[in-house]
Amino acid sequence: MTRLPSWPKATIRQQLTVIILVALAMILVVGNRMESWVKDVYAISDLEDLADRLDTIARVLATASPDDRQIIMGHARAAGWDITLAPMSTTNAFTHSSSEQNSLIALTDWLFPPDNDPPLGGWQTFLNDRRVVAAKVDDATIVMTLSLPEPIVTSDFLGRGPHFLLAFVVLAGLFSVFAVRAITAPIQKIVEAAKRTDIHTGAVVFEEKGTVEIVTLARALNGMRRRIKLMMDARTRMLRGIGHDLRTPLTRMKMKVERMPDCSEKEALIADIDRIDGMLTETLTYLRNDYATEPLELVNVASVLQTICSEFSDLGHAVRYDGPNKLNAECRPVSLTRAVTNLCDNAVKVARTVVVRLSEAPDALVIAVDDDGPGIPQDYRERVLEPFFKVDGARQGSREGLGLGLSIVADIARLHDGRLDLLPRQPHGLSARISLPRTSPSSGQENPAAR
Ligand SMILES: Nc1ncnc2c1ncn2[C@@H]1O[C@H](COP(=O)(O)OP(=O)(O)OP(=O)(O)O)[C@@H](O)[C@H]1O
Ligand SMILES: [Mg+2]
């Protein structure tokens, strides 16, 4: 596609002013040419011209004797004028509307009325439903046209019509080109960039090109992105620091407790220390975000899911697989295993039976982990995807988690350009669905889930 030359840097207001000026110049120059072209090439008769000529003939007839009138009429007919003489009483039969009048012509007449003095009976005169133009010859006689050329319009319409039409076409055309190039396309680019933006790469994602307003908006968004990145980096550094610093005293504590004489408190203390250690490990792993760098591979997703199910079955959970035996797809196998394991882990905590289903939609691969547990109330379905958020009632004693599992799953789905949906099941339960698009996902570097 050939690229149009880009606008010089200008505000939207300046561009609009230029467009209006260009349109005006075009309308003035091209409009005049169109007007004479319509008149000449299409030879469209105009009503005022016709009335003028008829009036001239009437004046000539007024001074002529009855015999001369017949000669003049003969000459006029020979010259192509379909006119006739009629008694003045004919005007009594004149009407101002006709059932057969073309509504377009009626509208044109109404929109562009002639400026000149009207002929006998007015501009809109009909006799026996046929449009006529009449002129008074003397007190007893009139002359009138018997048939009018088709189409017949007012000179006002012929003069201004092409200008109006041109103004409409030019302005509509220029404004739509302007709207697309100066407003819609840049905003669309910003929307696309915002959708796939990775807060962690320092790259400028919002293109700083276009009108002054769009450049300002893109700059502001890029600045905001940099500030968010700084805040997130600081938060991550702080959490990592706390995690590491806590581990050393925790290890010291554990060693001291282990040297204590055996008693019931000792067991409880060791269990608590192990639990804190586990939580720290989990948090640090989450912050390390290993799966973000895993490369894509062509994998048999069916066999990955079957393996996960058998591992849970081996631990005594009712987790079964339902789907094809083989289904190859490009994905990050370790991350995917982690995502589905997190989902199964959640499901076996609250449900009796769990089914991992694999199916193919036209443009996506769907992995659903269906359980018959209590499900997640509608109000929490978005919040549970946030890190460290848990629905209160689901705390399960020693197996209580940190609330990271689902946010990791959502990150992994996003990393594959897919998504995680949490849907209710009937009569109760949760269906956690990972949809992975069949098209190749973005590379590990451009990773929406990176922390
Ligand atoms: N299958 C499910 N049925 C009902 N509630 C669920 C299910 N899966 C998740 N939840 C709810 O969503 C919350 C968040 O789940 P998530 O996996 O993120 O954290 P977690 O399981 O509590 O801890 P972690 O996964 O870090 O060990 C859970 O605390 C639980 O309340
Ligand atoms: Mg979990």
From TrEMBL:
Primary localization: membrane
Segments of this protein annotated with the region Disordered: 431-451
Pfam families, per the entry: HAMP, HATPase_c
Record membrane topology: Multi-pass membrane protein
CDD domains (alphabetical): HAMP (cd06225), HATPase (cd00075), HisKA (cd00082)
Listed Polar residues bias regions: 437-451
GO molecular function: ATP binding; phosphorelay sensor kinase activity
Reaction catalysed by this enzyme: ATP + protein L-histidine = ADP + protein N-phospho-L-histidine
GO cellular component, one term: plasma membrane
Annotated EC: 2.7.13.3
Keywords, sorted A to Z: ATP-binding, Cell inner membrane, Cell membrane, Kinase, Membrane, Nucleotide-binding, Phosphoprotein, Transferase, Transmembrane, Transmembrane helix, Two-component regulatory system
Residue intervals of the Histidine kinase domain: 241-440
Domain of life: Bacteria
SMART domains: HATPase_c, HisKA
Localization terms from the record: Cell inner membrane
InterPro entries: 2C_sensor_his_kinase (IPR050980), HAMP_dom (IPR003660), HATPase_C_sf (IPR036890), HATPase_dom (IPR003594), His_kinase_dom (IPR005467), HisK_dim/P_dom (IPR003661), HisK_dim/P_sf (IPR036097), Sig_transdc_His_kin-like_C (IPR004358)
Record-annotated HAMP domain positions: 181-233
Matches recorded under SUPFAM superfamilies: ATPase domain of HSP90 chaperone/DNA topoisomerase II/histidine kinase (SSF55874), Homodimeric domain of signal transducing histidine kinase (SSF47384)
Segments passing through the bilayer: 12-30, 164-183
Protein name: histidine kinase
Lineage, highest ranks first: Bacteria, Pseudomonadati, Pseudomonadota, Alphaproteobacteria, Hyphomicrobiales
